[in-house]
Amino acid sequence: MLRMGKLTDYGIVLMSYLARNNKDHYNAHTLADAVHMPQPTVRKVLKALSQNGLLDSERGAHGGYSLSRQAKDISIADIITAIEGPIALTECVSSESQCDQEVHCAVQTNWERINSAVYHALDEVKLSDMLIPDAHNKGVSPIHFYPTSSKLDSEIQQDGEIHG
C-alpha cells in the first residue's frame, strides 16, 4: 500500500487552513487550536514547510506563518516533497538508491515512468483545489488531471525515458 505519512497529511491540512484564511499571519498555537492538532506536531510541520519555502515566517508580537505564494501556485507535490523528501515509489527512482539489482534491472525505466506520472499527477493538484468544499458530494472534481496525450508524448520520447 502506498501511503504518505501523517505529518504530510497534517501539512496539507495546515496549508489548506492558511490558504482558506489568507488574511494574516498565524502563530503555531492559533493554528493548532484551529485544526485540532497538538502544538508540538504543528510546530514540526510548520518548520518543515517554512524551511522548504512554502511558508513565510515572521517573528515578533504580530508575527507568525503565512503562505509564501498564492494557493494556486503551490502543488500537493510541493507539500509532500517538503515534508517527506523527493517523491520516489521505489528505491531505484530515488537519488539515494542503494539497490543491488539496479545495474541489471529490467523494470527500472518503467518504475521511473510510473514515478514521474505519479509526481506529475500530484503536481497538477494545487492547494487551491483542496479548498473546494464537498466537491465529491456535489459531483465536481477539483482535480485537473495532467497532461493531455500530446504533452505526455513530448515528454516520454528519448530512449523510452521521460524527459521534459
Description:
- This protein has a single domain (about 5-160), classed as Orthogonal Bundle (Arc Repressor Mutant, subunit A), CATH 1.10.10.
- The protein has 6 helices and 2 strands.
- It has helices at about 5-20, 30-35, 40-50, 75-85, 110-125, 150-155; strands at about 55-60, 65.
- β1 and β2 form a beta hairpin.
- α1 crosses α4.
- It is elongated.
- The chain starts with 5 loop residues before the first helix and ends in a 9-residue tail after the last helix.
Structural class: mainly alpha
- The CATH level-2 architecture is identified as Orthogonal Bundle
CATH superfamily: Winged helix-like DNA-binding domain superfamily/Winged helix DNA-binding domain
Helix content: 40-55%
Low-confidence stretches: 152-164
Number of domains: 1
Task: Round the Cα radius of gyration to an integer and report it.
Answer: 18 Å
CATH level-3 fold name: Arc Repressor Mutant, subunit A
Distance N to C terminus: 29 Å
Number of helices: 6
User: What oligomeric arrangement do these chains adopt?
Assistant: single chain
Order of helices and strands: HHHEEHHH
Our estimate of the beta-strand percent is under 5%
Instruction: State the total count of DSSP E strands.
Output: 2
Strand order of the largest sheet: 1-2
Shape: elongated
Determine the mean pLDDT: 81
